[in-house]
Amino acid sequence: MTDEAIKLWEPSEDRRRATQIAAFMDAVNARFHTEISDYDALWRWSVDNREDFWEQVWDFGGVIGDKGTGEGGARRLADGDAMPGAKFFPDARVNFAENLLRRDGDGDAMVFWGEDKVKRRLSWAEVRASVARLAAALKADGVGPGDRVAAYMPNMPETVVGMLAATSLGAVWSSCSPDFGIQGVLDRFGQIEPTVLIAVEGYYYAGKSLDIRDKVTAVAAQLPTVKRVVVVPYVNEAPDISGIEKATLWADYLGGGPVPDLEFTRMPFNDPLYIMFSSGTTGVPKCIVHGIGGTLLQHLKEHKLQTDVRPGDRAFYFTTCGWMMWNWLVSGLAAEATLLLYDGSPFHPDGNILFDYADAEGMTLFGTSAKYIDALNKGGMDPKSTHDLSTVRTMTSTGSPLVPEGFDYVYEHIKEDIQLASISGGTDIVSCFVLGNPIGPVWRGEIQKRGLGMAVEVWNEAGQAVVGEKGELVCTKAFPCMPIYFWNDPDGAKFRAAYFETWPGVWCHGDYVELTPRGGMVIYGRSDAVLNPGGVRIGTAEIYRQVEQLPEVLESLVIGQDWQGDVRVVLFVRLAEGVTLDDDLVAKIKQRIRTGATPRHVPAKVLAVGDIPRTKSGKIVELAVRNVVHGRPVKNVEALANPEALDEYRDRVELAG
Ligand SMILES: CC(=O)CC(=O)O
C-alpha cells in the first residue's frame, strides 16, 4: 500500500465488550488458561492450536451432534498435517438442518421481499412445518443420504425450506438461480444427477416478470435421473405446469393434514452437504463438494465471531442462490438470526429498496458487493440523509475488492458508526479467508483480518512469507471448510490441480494480495489475471481503483495483450451516459493512473465498450476477454450473465496495431 493508513472506524468499549468474539475470548482464556486479549493473539492461538480452537467453536456455537468417541476421547483432527487429507472430527455425526432449525415458535425465521411485488414472512414454526412436510415427501420419493436435490430457484423462502428438508435427510443440496440458461443448468446439474428438481415457474427482475416454464421443461427433460419436478408458484398463483414432465405443484407435494414429525438424520461430519460450481469460464464448471460439519463450523465462526451475528439479529445478503453467499447467508439461522431474503434487482424501482428493507425490517447485517457500493457512489445516492439505518451494525462487501473510496463512501453516505467488513474467500471454501473483526478498527482500503483458524499468509514467488509486499494468498494448514472432494474426480487429480500445484501441501488460492503491518489484507485481483508488462506484476484492481474514480467512467476491465514479445496493458471502459472517449478523456484516464499508481500501470490502449461481461454472480471476466482479444475460444459462455457483451471485444482494429 502506498497510502498512509487511515483509521475510519473503531468500536466503542461498550460495543467491544458486548461482542460474541469477546465472550469467546473469555471462554478460551478460562478453558485453556491463556491470557488472550486482542484479535491478533486470538488468531495466533487459533492457528497454532487448531484442535482446541475448532472444538471451542463447536461448543461456543452450541453445535447439536455427537463428537464421536474415538480411543482417548473424540478425535478432533486426523492427519492434521496433510493437505489435502486432514479430517476434522472424523468420528463426529451431525445434521445440518437440525443445527439451523434450533428455534421454534412465532418469531420471524425469514422475511422475503421479491422486489416491490411480494412481501411475506414465515415464523420458525411455519418453517419447521414446511420442512417436515417437504422432507416426508422427498423421502417418499426415495430421497435419502447422499442423494442430490437440485433447485432452479430465486432467493426465496421455499429455496431455504428445500435445502433444509433435503439436508434433514442427509441428502446433498445444489442450486442455480433462474437467470441461468438451459445449457448452464445442464452443465451443472447434469454432472451431479439429482433425484428431485425444485423450480419456480417465473421470477421478477427490474420490474418485469419472466416466465421460465420453457426452460424448466427443457432442463427436466434432459436430466434423466430426476424423478420429480416440484414447481413453486411465484409470479402466478396457479401456473399451468402440464408441459413439464413429472411436475407437481409445491402445495400438492407438501400435502395437507397433520404435520409429520421433523426428523434429522445425523451424518458423518465429513459427508457431503453442498455441491457448488466454479464459475466455469475455463471449461465445464467444476463441482466443488463441501462437507456438512466443516461448513457448519466455519459459518458459525464467521457469523458469530467475525460478523457478530447475535440471536434475534436480522441478517441480509444481496445474493442469488447461484452464488455461495446464499449458502453463507442461510447459515445465519444457526446463529439464531432471522433471514431477510431479497430477490430481484437491488435498484428497482428507485435505487432505495435495500435501504427501505433495512428500515422496515430492522436489518442488523447489510451484506452486499463492492460493485453495489460503487454503483451507489456513482449514482450520488445518500442513504444517510434519506434513511434511518439505526439498526444496521455491520455492513459486509464482497465479490471484488472494495476500493478505498468505497470505504469513504460508506462512512460518509451510509452510516458513520458501522463495522464495514470487506470479506473475501469464495466458492472454493464456501466462506472467507479474510474478513471482519468486530473488536478492532477498520482501516481505509483494508480487509480487517485473517479469519480465525485460517493459517493465511502471503508468499512471494520464492515461497517466503512476506508482509507489506504483494504475493499469493496461501493457507498453510488444513481447515474444516476445505472441499471434501470434487464430484467425478475419483483420484482427486482435479482437486489437487486446483489448489495444491504451486506449492504441494499448501492451499494456493489464486488471489494476488498484500498483508499489511496491521494484519489486514489488500486484494489486487486474481493471480491469473495479473498483468505482466515488461515483467512487472500488476494486479488488475490497482488499475480499476484509479480509473473508476473518474465520474466519466462507470466501470472498466483491463487485460494484458501479448504484443511484440512482451505484454501491453489494454483498458476497456464503460462510460457514463453522454460521455465519449475522446483524446482528452484518454489523456485524463492515463494521467489518473500515472499519478495514482505508477507509469508502469498506464495502459497502452484505452477503448470504449458498451458493456463489461460478467458472471451471473457479478464478477467481471478478465480471462474470457483476454481469450477473445487473442482469438482464442471462450469456454462455457453459459456462465456469463451477458455473453453477448464479448462480441465488442473481438477483432478490434485498435488492437491490431
Ligand atoms: C466471500 C467471497 O469471496 C465471495 C465472492 O467474491 O465470491
Account of the 3D structure:
Residues 39-99 form the Acetyl-coenzyme A synthetase N-terminal domain. With 657 residues, the protein is of the alpha/beta class. Helices cover 29% and strands 24% of the residues. The chain has a 7-stranded mixed β-sheet with strand order 7-6-19-18-20-21-22, sandwiched between helices. The protein has a 5-stranded parallel β-sheet with strand order 9-8-10-13-14, with helices on both faces. It is globular and about 75 Å long. Acetoacetic acid binds next to strand 23.
Q: Give the averaged pLDDT, no decimals.
A: 96
Structural class: alpha/beta
| Assembly state | single chain
- In DSSP terms (H or I, runs of 4 or more residues), the helix count works out at 20
In a nutshell, what does this entry contain?
This is Acetoacetate-CoA ligase. The protein has 657 residues and is an alpha/beta fold.
Topology record:
Elements: E1 7-9, H1 13-18, H2 20-32, H3 39-48, H4 50-60, E2 65-66, E3 77-78, E4 87-88, E5 93-94, H5 96-100, E6 108-114, E7 118-123, H6 124-140, E8 148-152, H7 157-168, E9 172-176, H8 182-192, E10 196-200, E11 202-205, E12 208-211, H9 213-221, E13 228-232, E14 247-249, H10 250-254, E15 267-268, E16 272-277, E17 287-291, H11 292-306, E18 314-317, H12 324-330, E19 338-343, H13 353-361, E20 365-369, H14 370-378, H15 383-386, E21 394-398, H16 404-414, E22 419-422, E23 424-426, E24 431-435, E25 442-443, E26 449-450, E27 456-459, E28 470-475, E29 485-486, H17 493-499, E30 507-515, E31 521-526, H18 540-547, E32 553-563, E33 566-575, H19 583-596, E34 605-609, H20 622-629
Parallel strand pairs: 6-19, 8-9, 8-10, 10-13, 13-14, 18-19, 18-20, 20-21, 21-22, 33-34
Antiparallel strand pairs: 1-25, 2-5, 3-4, 5-15, 6-7, 11-12, 16-17, 17-29, 23-24, 24-26, 27-28, 28-30, 30-31, 32-33
Helix pairs in contact: 3-4, 6-7, 8-9, 14-16
Bound molecules: acetoacetic acid.
